[in-house]
Amino acid sequence: MALTMYWYPKCGTCRKAKKWLEDHGIDFREIHIVENPPSKEELKSFYEKSGLELKKFFNTSGQKYRQLGLKKKVKTATDEELFDLLASDGMLIKRPIVTDGEKVTVGFKEEEFEKIWGN
Asked: Which end of the chain is less packed: N or C, by CB atoms within 10 Å?
């Protein structure tokens, strides 16, 4: 199955991930994370398959995160509240999210991409 990459074209990290996938000849489709953010159900699925903490799905360096004062909220909110927040605005989600339906990566680290998506 081809990969799906939720990304934001102006994001430098997303562009690095895209270039890595292209350089490695990996077929993928792009979904603009702000125009078409993943649903709450998709986010829950990504979370379960990623093995990451839920707070790792937040774009903590983003303006929106800071404007909404989420640093404190994330520590006390329930998972349900966090999923609602993430699903409400693609700019709150750490990107890119890459998935093949079974595995999920959040953000871009070359070593991680090599291990998970490399041939």
From this structure: C
Asked if 29 and 2 count as a contact pair (C-beta separation under 8 A), the reply is yes
Name the 3-class secondary structure at 88: helix
Question: Tokens 């990304």 correspond to what residue?
Answer: 7
Tell me the average pLDDT across 5-14.
97
In this prediction the pTM is 0.94
CA 62, 64, 67, 72 torsion-angle sign: negative
- Exposed e or buried b per residue across 19-29, where buried means at least 16 C-beta atoms within 10 angstroms of its C-beta: ebbeeeebebe
| Strand pairing category for 97-99 and 104-106 | antiparallel
Closest CA to 95 of 83, 84, 86: 86
Q: Where are the alpha helices (DSSP H) in the chain?
A: 12-23, 40-50, 63-67, 70-76, 79-88, 110-117
